[in-house]
Every structure is written in structure tokens, then in C-alpha cells.
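TICKET: design request
STATUS: open
ATTACHED STRUCTURE:
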């Protein structure tokens, strides 16, 4: 059965939008608005919390007439999913359950039906195809800065993603950098990782490095002190990072510095060094272009909201990152307000040739505004106005 057949006829604009090829061309605002209307009505009818949210905001989907009207679609704070499960499908329809990769506190719990996880993976397929990252001519070695496969981490979003990305090139061997040192405890295996890179450099096959940037940096820092590896890595190697620095934020360096280290020490060209942004609450893939900017694909739209008023701001002004897409049918996460602070810029200011705007992550917000939004959502969950 094709993915499009998983949706009813009343949601075929969602299918048309989200199954479209060429992620950064032929943007269709009219189709996006039709798909958003279908998604809003779906969650209104399937999820009592979302129905109350629309009523509380006095929101009607027929007011969604132009792309600027997206600012009025009620959003849900990403951190709200850390406390509550908001399914718009039955438990029997859940095909996958993932959690966020936060290092402390409660993790977000997001559930996916077959359509939602299938179309999200298809979007990654299209972006890897766009950048010609699907390798058919050679096996590759993998270095994954994520948890080695054990039952405990089967639901962790970052671990799931890193293993999923291995499908784009046939593995010769796979090394996991985060090892279980004792039941329930994981440690970064620096020396094992260095040994794996040394072996990969001698074998000469392309190497694909995925996962948390902090551990990649720690590896490069050690290699710099030790004089590098025996041979530079195959220039067709690919570094694709994601998941942020987590509790190593105090050691974070600028991406340009990290990429320069990777080029100097491992010989990986700049255009093969990329970062990705995403979350389990919003699985649309935002992947750096050759100029290292997060362009917005046709399947989503992005707003930046003022930290005080929550009103949308202009290009170049920082605020909360609001991610919007009609792709998800399992959870009412069609408009998610992240705790990340970001700025958005017009496509022409990048110069890479992609014709969609892009955003830049500038930091994490505090908790006061997040708490106030969460309190309002909690009232709705309890059925209060």
C-alpha cells in the first residue's frame, strides 16, 4: 500500500504536499494552506484537547486564507509533550514511539502512525537524494556518535535517526561511540572511537559520521593533540551531525571552527560537513546547505515569535522558533513552539542557490515564558476555560 492510501480522501491535500519531490523548489502556498486546514480539522475531530484548544483560541480553520494567517494557528509548546500524551489516533494505530534526547528531566513522548513516520522518512530520502548523498557504488564505514543498540534506547529519537541514516549507503562496519558501561549507564568511548577512525583511515573506504557534535569535537581535539590519523579519510566521507551539545554546552565551539578541525585533521571537504536540526516533536528535516544554513523545505513553514509578545518578527530578529507543518496525523503537533531562539533570513542572503528562507539557531530560551504557555495548555487539558 502506498503512503497516500493511508489517508482518507478528505486529507489528500496533505498527501499531495508531503509526498512532493524536490524539497526546495516549486513552493505552493495555496496547497500548504489547504493541507493545514485538513490537518486542523483532523485533530479537532480526533483529539479532545486540540478541540478545546481551538475553542479557547476562538479559532476557525476557514480563516486560513493566506500564508500570513499561519501566525494565528494555535501552537503547542514543545515542552508540553514532556508531561502529556496527546494522541489523535488509537493506540492500535501507533507504529512507533520515540522520546526526545534531553539529558535531564522528563523526555517528550511522541507517537507515530504509519503515515506520519513513513512520510517523515520519505522527506529525509528526498533531501539525501537532493544532495546526492545516496551511495550505490561503494560500501562505507560508519561512526555513530549515539547509543549502541540496546533495548533501553530503542525509543530514543536520536539513536533511531542515526541508525535510520545508515540505509543510504551499505555498511562495511559500524562503530558506536556511546557504550553501555554498566546497566543503564553510558559513557563516551574515546579511545575505541579513535581506534575505529584509525582503522577507517587505513582501509580507505568513505566514512559516514553521524550524531552528537560534542563527542565529535572531543575526538577531533584528542586527535589534534596526538598528531591526527595515519591517513586522511576518503574525501567522499560525510559528516552529518545533530542533537545539539546537550550537557556539554559549556564546551561548545562555533560550527565553522568544528568544520575546520574536521577538514584539517580528517581531510573531509567543507561541503561534506553538515548539521541537521529537528526534534521528535517536529520531524521535518532541516539540513544545512553547502553554506551551512537551515533552509525550509516545501513541507513546512517557519515563524520567529517575539519572546515577550509571541507575535511574529521580521527577518534578522531573534525569537522563539515556531515550526508548522500538516504532515503529522498521530499527534496534534502541526504548530510547535520550540524553546530554541532563532533568526530567519531571506533565501537570497544565503547564496547557495536554494530559493527558500533559512533560519539560524542562536540559543535556548529561559523557562518563564515556557511555563506560562504550558499553564494555559494545562487548563485546556483539564477542560477549563
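STATUS: resolved
RESOLUTION: sequence designed for all positions
ATTACHED SEQUENCE:
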Amino acid at each position: 500500500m502506498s503512503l497516500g492510501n493511508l489517508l482518507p480522501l478528505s486529507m489528500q491535500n496533505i498527501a499531495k504536499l508531503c509526498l512532493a519531490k524536490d524539497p526546495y523548489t516549486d513552493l505552493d502556498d495555496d496547497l500548504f494552506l489547504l493541507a493545514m486546514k485538513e490537518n486542523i480539522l483532523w485533530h479537532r475531530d480526533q483529539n479532545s484537547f486540540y478541540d478545546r484548544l481551538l475553542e479557547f483560541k476562538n479559532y476557525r480553520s476557514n480563516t486560513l486564507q493566506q500564508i500570513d494567517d499561519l501566525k494565528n494557528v494555535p501552537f503547542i509548546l514543545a515542552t508540553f509533550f514532556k508531561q502529556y500524551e496527546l494522541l489523535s489516533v488509537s493506540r492500535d494505530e501507533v507504529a512507533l514511539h520515540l522520546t526526545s534526547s534531553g539529558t535531564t528531566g522528563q523526555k517528550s513522548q511522541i507517537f507515530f502512525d504509519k503515515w506520519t513516520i513513513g512520510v517523515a522518512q520519505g522527506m529525509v530520502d528526498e533531501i539525501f537524494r537532493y544532495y546526492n548523498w545516496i551511495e550505490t557504488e561503494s560500501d562505507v564505514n560508519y561512526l555513530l556518535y549515539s547509543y549502541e543498540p540496546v533495548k533501553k534506547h530503542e525509543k530514543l529519537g536520536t539513536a533511531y535517526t542515526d541508525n535510520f541514516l545508515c540505509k543510504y549507503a551499505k555498511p562495511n562496519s559500524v562503530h558506536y561511540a556511546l557504550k553501555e558501561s554498566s546497566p543503564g549507564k553510558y559513557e563516551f568511548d574515546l579511545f575505541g572511537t579513535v581506534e575505529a577512525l584509525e582503522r577507517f583511515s587505513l582501509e580507505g573506504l568513505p566514512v559516514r559520521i553521524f550524531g552528537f557534535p560534542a563527542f565529535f569535537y572531543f575526538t577531533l581535539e584528542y586527535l589534534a593533540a596526538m598528531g591526527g590519523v595515519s591517513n586522511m579519510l576518503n574525501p567522499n566521507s560525510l559528516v552529518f551531525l545533530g542533537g545539539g551539545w546537550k550537557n556539554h554546552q559549556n564546551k561548545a565551539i562555533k560550527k565553522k571552527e568544528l568544520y575546520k578541525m574536521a577538514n584539517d585533521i580528517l581531510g573531509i571537504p567543507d561541503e561534506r560537513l553538515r548539521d541537521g536540526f529537528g526534534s521528535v516533536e517536529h520531524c521535518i528535516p532541516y539540513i544545512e546547505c553547502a553554506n551551512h544554513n537551515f533552509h525550509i523545505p516545501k513541507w513546512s513553514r517557519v515563524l520567529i515569535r517575539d519572546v515577550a509578545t509571541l507575535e511574529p518578527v521580521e527577518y534578522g530578529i531573534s525569537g522563539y522558533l515556531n515550526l508548522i507543518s500538516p504532515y503529522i496525523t498521530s499527534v496534534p503537533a502541526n504548530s510547535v513552539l520550540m524553546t530554541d531562539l532563532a533568526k530567519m533570513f531571506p533565501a537570497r542572503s544565503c547564496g547557495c542557490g536554494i530559493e527558500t528562507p533559512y533560519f539560524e539557531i542562536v540559543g535556548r530560551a529561559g523557562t518563564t515564558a515556557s511555563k506560562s504557555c504550558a499553564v494555559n495548555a494545562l487548563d485546556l487539558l483539564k477542560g477549563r476555560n
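CLOSING REMARK: The chain has two domains: 20-93+293-381, 122-278. The radius of gyration is 21 Å.
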